[in-house]
Amino acid sequence: MTDTVIRTLTASDAHLFDAHPDPLGAREGHRRTRFRPDWKRVALRDGEVVARGAWWGGPDDSEPVNINWFDVAEGEEEAGAELLRSAPWQVELEINLPGGWRDKTDLRAAAEARFAAARAAGCEPLAERFLYRWTPEQGLPERPGRLRFSTEPDDTVFFDALRRIHSITLDAHALKAIEEGGLDQAAQEELDFFHWCPSPREWWQIARTPEGDLVGIHIPAHNPSGPTIGFIGVVPEQRGRGYAYDLLAECTHLLVEQGAEFISGATDQGNSPMAANFTKAGFPVIRERINFHPAGQAA
User: What does UniProt give as the signal peptide span (predicted)?
Assistant: First the structure.
């Protein structure tokens, strides 16, 4: 077997990225994603593309924030691993999969080849997530009307709420941040992401009971691919009352009022209460995602 050649692409040879089968339907999932040619890399053997990866970030980012398109040909797991290992950016890897992929032999084999390559490159699984997409034909979720929503210009209020929300959480990314740097890091990472999103700060909202007690927060957002449910969180002492649905319904309505024609969302598969709320609010699962993170980072 000849050696693998790793190539970072340019505008002139970006077509090489397309010279590979797409059994997991990544192209359809990335119709709205904008990739930079020089953040795409391929592994070649005898001139044939046997693995490919597309790193992604916002339009103003100097480095990618993750790699969210990664393919490996059958039997070429080591080439895929080398593609990841040799990259100048060691960031989180997202492997997006069709819903029900485990039940179809060909999809499962394709997914497991990518998992094997990721592990061989030193990446470890972090989370399995459901990806949702609301469209107008689903109908707007009913607003229960139990809470009072207001904007809040002070980031400190959101930071304190996030610390309380993440003090008891099922979210794998929040748990990773807590392990690395405590609740302050988990809260700050959320705030940094919200500020990174190209949507108005004025959309962020605090939710309270009619008596004025804090219930939680919701963040309607736009990421570079479109409108999304940025964050839904209920403080621990208010849980068990179904308030996460109220927050999700309000977040959906606000985005539609701002012109959204579709809304994406995601939650960890282990977070069954939030998954149930997405279903109740009319958000169908359209894909699944496995997140890997580079070894040596806390999980």
Answer: none
